[in-house]
Write a structure and sequence with these properties.
The complex is a heterodimer.
Chain A (H helix, E strand, L loop, with lengths): L1 H11 L2 H4 L14 H25 L3 H28 L7 H18 L3 H30 L3 H28 L1
Chain B lengths: L2 H11 L10 E7 L2 E3 L2 E5 L3 E6 L5 E5 L5 E4 L4 E5 L4 E6 L7 E7 L1
Parallel strand pairs in B: 1-4, 3-9
Antiparallel strand pairs in B: 1-2, 4-7, 5-6, 5-8, 8-9
The chains are: A mainly alpha, B mainly beta.
């Protein structure tokens, strides 16, 4: 399944995205609900941090609006996720995938920190497209099918629709920046 | 005489046509889906979106004629002024799509 995920990601994704594909190929075992909750929450938090960097650096209105949308939506989804894990008495559990995602996001932040103006805007938005694509691929092929609790699965499914929306929104912004 | 007939007679006496009265048509937004995805309306009708999601959405006409912001758990509306089919989407989540067919 993990091999299939890696192969699926690798064939469908742009070169930039290939760098992120191995994140979800780590750890051979099927993730547990506490791990899935941690991965989904972490993925949202990392996108909020990326957006905050964009809000500090970008002067482009469309990019700033997009970043604000990311902060608002991901904060809302994560609020719901926290409420759900509280209700289900699931304790999110750190794992290799969460750690790899976090490490990779930190590297990307450092890379983007060196850019400014239009170069930053383009790189940030391109990474948003790639990042959402990667997370959506993982949700579809691994996280949603692996979730055993129905409510967690439901939240992930709604999350997937939201993030697919973000991916398309990011694509529109990327097209406008050209 | 049924109540409907009385309304009709009164309307005719007042010079109104029942069929021409503008209506409000509701479209629900739930888990990033516009439902019904397609509605039939006529010029002068109001489309009211009821957003059941906690997220902000928009109803944005593809041709740029109108753009309605709909905060989480709130409503938004537009009065239809032009006949024809109007495709719309959510600017923030462009995978959300709807269509309104407006009769003259």
């Amino acid at each position: 399944m993990i091999v299939k995920l890696a192969a699926g990601l690798a064939t469908g994704l742009a070169a930039l995205c290939l760098l992120t594909a191995p994140v979800f190929a780590q750890g051979a075992a099927k993730p547990t609900d506490p791990q899935i909750a941690h991965i989904a929450y972490t993925a949202g938090q990392l996108d909020i941090e990326a957006a905050k960097q964009a809000l500090e650096k970008s002067k482009n209105k469309e990019v700033r609006d997009f970043a604000q949308d990311m902060v608002r939506d991901h904060a809302e989804v994560n609020k719901q996720a926290l409420a759900l894990v509280g209700k289900l008495k699931v304790k999110p559990e750190d794992n290799d995938t969460s750690r790899a995602l976090t490490k990779q996001a930190a590297a990307k932040r450092d890379e983007l920190a060196k850019l400014s103006g239009a170069a930053f805007d383009k790189a940030y938005v391109a990474n948003e497209v790639a990042y959402h694509k990667t997370v959506n691929g993982a949700l579809e092929t691994t996280l949603i099918p692996s979730a055993s609790n129905g409510e967690l699965k439901g939240l992930l499914q709604t999350g997937l629709k939201i993030f697919q929306g973000h991916e398309q929104h990011a694509q529109h912004v990327a097209a406008d920046l050209k | 005489m049924t109540p409907e007939r009385i309304v009709l007679v009164v309307s005719v006496l007042l010079g109104l046509s029942v069929s021409a009265r503008a209506e409000t048509i509701q479209v629900t937004i739930d888990k990033l889906v516009f439902a019904p995805a397609e509605v039939n309306a006529k010029v002068g009708d109001t489309i009211e979106w009821v957003n059941k999601d906690v997220l902000v959405h928009t109803a944005t006409a593809t041709n740029g004629d109108w753009n309605v912001n709909i905060p989480g758990n709130q409503r938004g509306e537009v009065v239809l002024k032009k006949p024809g089919a109007a495709d719309y989407y959510c600017k923030l989540h462009p995978n959300m799509k709807g269509r309104i067919v407006v009769a003259p």
